[in-house]
Recover the amino acids of this structure.
């Protein structure tokens, strides 16, 4: 059996052996700390729905989040999405999360990230809900929604959204 010693532990062991005291040294005075990007807010973003991708009975619609601000921002997680009728009343339940593990997406000004809506392309294994006129989209980590005028119909009790990805 091979034993290894972590090199970071050696100075501490040596200090104990000779009775010395270790001093932790932080960044030099005046050194800059990394700037943390702020979370993208609806005011930082243009949210749009792309063209549907239809195939094998499935329907996928990309939601694009574009940073329109003048500084980088971060998106992490899933957007909240609901389908609304022409009176802006919700049809059915909001989209379920598709189960993928989200990762932080850093958006420089002008850059975009995408989440994908999924349903079936017609009543395959279940009925369709009435066709909606709007999508109500909450960017990840936001309590403020964006309203997109775009038709969308949930079918077969399948309505999921992916986390944002670059």
């Amino acid at each position: 059996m091979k034993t290894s010693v972590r090199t970071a532990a050696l100075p501490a062991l040596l200090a104990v052996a000779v009775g010395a005291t270790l001093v932790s040294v932080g960044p030099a005075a005046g050194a800059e700390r990394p700037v943390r990007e702020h979370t993208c807010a609806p005011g930082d973003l243009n949210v749009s729905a792309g063209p549907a991708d239809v195939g094998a009975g499935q329907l996928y619609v990309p939601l694009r989040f574009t940073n329109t601000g003048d500084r980088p921002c971060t998106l992490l997680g899933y957007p909240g999405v609901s389908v609304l009728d022409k009176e802006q009343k919700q049809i059915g339940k909001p989209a379920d999360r598709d189960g993928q593990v989200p990762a932080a997406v850093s958006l420089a000004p002008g850059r975009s990230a995408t989440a994908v809506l999924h349903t079936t392309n017609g009543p395959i294994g279940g009925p369709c809900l009435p066709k909606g006129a709007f999508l109500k989209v909450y960017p990840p980590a936001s309590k403020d929604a964006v309203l997109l005028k775009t038709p969308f119909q949930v079918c077969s009790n399948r309505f999921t959204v992916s986390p944002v990805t670059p």
Notes: The chain has one helix and 13 strands. The radius of gyration is 24 Å. Residues 9-18 form the longest helix (10 residues). Residues 15 and 21 are 6 Å apart (CA to CA).
